[in-house]
Write a structure and sequence with these properties.
about 375 residues, alpha/beta, Rossmann fold, Dehydroquinate synthase-like, alpha domain, 2 domains, six-stranded parallel β-sheet, two-stranded antiparallel sheet, about 55% helix, binds nicotinamide-adenine-dinucleotide, binds zinc ion, oxidoreductase, glycerol dehydrogenase (NAD+) activity, metal-binding, NAD, Glycerol dehydrogenase
Length: about 375
């Protein structure tokens, strides 16, 4: 018998101004809340979060996130959690703040509410935390037993954030279906260590079709701080569909190549989703997909303002040695690139990156 696992947060709430109803949704989860967000984010929404939680009878303490999901920062927040005798932590902001709240809850127990203020990654719904050193070097990746008890995403807040976050979320979500599909075809395991479900595959596919149907107009709207139905669709694709799809559906080459790219300092200014976009197109090249598909996906990425050339993620004229470093890291033994349904070598990855760049530059003209 084949075991299959699908896991997810217990509840997901999305919509304009849902932030103001946070207290009602969180009410069954506890009565003493620790609110975590960086200065920018607390300035933006801190008061509304506190007012809503207070109205629901929560006793609140707020802590300013220092911006890095490091062991030291997690330790500091954990102390505040214990001092406040909290039974709920609310992580507000981007992927790093939410990961920090998640890692804290893992140590303290209690409930976790994830409150993304950007639709930039798969972090809000996941059970994963990416841990860094205090100076921002990647350290490790943890998959925890539990998911957030509640995810609340206010689409008006997301539409008012800088558009680059929204584009990046599209880049992260664009990978989900291609990776889940590769993992399914090869019979590989997901982050939960089993084969995936058909449910997760369909969710991943829906992430992709939603982006293709609504991505461009959603980016136009967000550029003008508007919440349209297409924005609602893409926020859901970036956050819920991609989040569930990547975890329960499986990863493959795209994220492994992203991880490889982070080896080069020059890519550090590019966001997670921007690097994943290059990884996705490289996966298609590696898989030997037809030109029409590669150009279609690259064309869509370019049309929503995502990178399709190496120069656009900080690699102007990278040497072949640099690309070999990326490729070696992408092919490390425990990397998800080996979930592709064929053997992948570092030489294949290096040349796929050269191929992606060439296609991207040609389409640019
Ligand atoms: N756990 C997971 O499954 C998972 C998946 C992908 C990525 N990640 C993590 O997420 C990180 C990337 O997250 P990210 O791209 O969201 O960025 P981030 O968390 O690194 O930073 C977000 C930035 O956006 C600002 N910000 C947030 N909301 C804002 C708003 N509404 N208006 C203006 N500024 C706002 C914050 O102040 C902060 O500077 C990765 O480095 C990785 O560590 C985790
Ligand atoms: Zn991702």
């Amino acid at each position: 018998m084949t075991t299959r696992i699908f896991r997810s947060p217990a509840a997901y709430i999305q919509g304009r101004n849902v932030l103001d109803d946070l207290g009602d949704y969180a009410d069954p989860l506890g009565d003493a809340a620790l609110v975590l967000g960086d200065e920018v984010v607390l300035d933006l929404v801190g008061e509304r979060v506190e007012t809503s939680l207070e109205a629901a009878g929560f006793d609140i303490d707020s802590v300013v996130f220092n911006g890095e999901c490091s062991e030291k920062e997690i330790g500091r927040i954990r102390e505040r959690h214990t001092e406040h005798d909290a039974n709920l932590i609310v992580g507000i902001g981007g992927g790093k703040a939410i990961d920090t709240a998640r890692a804290t809850r893992e140590r303290t127990g209690g409930a976790l509410v994830s409150l993304p203020t950007v639709a930039s990654t798969d972090a809000p719904t996941s059970s994963v935390a990416v841990i860094y050193s205090e100076d921002g070097e990647f350290v490790e990746f943890h998959v925890y037993e539990r998911h957030p008890d509640l995810v609340v995403i206010d689409t008006e807040v997301v539409a008012n954030a800088p558009t680059r976050f929204f584009r990046s979320g599209i880049g992260d979500a664009l990978a989900t279906w291609f990776e889940a599909d590769a993992a399914f075809r090869s019979g590989a395991t997901t982050l939960f260590g089993t084969r995936s479900t058909r449910t997760a595959q369909e969710i991943a596919k829906l992430a992709y079709t939603t982006l293709r149907e609504h991505g461009r107009s959603a980016v136009d709207a967000v550029e003008n701080n508007a919440v349209t139905e297409s924005v609602e669709a893409v926020v859901e694709a970036n956050t819920l569909l991609s989040g569930l799809g990547f975890e329960s559906g499986g990863l493959a080459a795209a994220h492994a190549i992203h991880n490889g790219l982070t080896q080069l300092e020059a890519t550090h200014e590019a966001t997670h989703g921007e690097k994943v976009t290059i990884g996705t197109i490289a996966q298609l090249v590696l898989e030997g997909r037809e030109d029409a598909l590669v150009e279609d996906v690259a064309g869509f990425a370019a049309s929503v303002g995502l990178p399709t050339t190496l120069a656009e993620i900080g690699l102007e004229d990278p040497s072949i040695e640099d690309l070999a470093i990326v490729a070696e890291a992408a092919c490390a033994e425990d990397e998800t690139i080996h979930n592709e349904p064929f053997e992948v070598t570092a030489d294949d990855v290096r040349d796929a990156l050269v191929g992606v760049d060439a296609v991207g530059r040609r389409l640019d003209h």
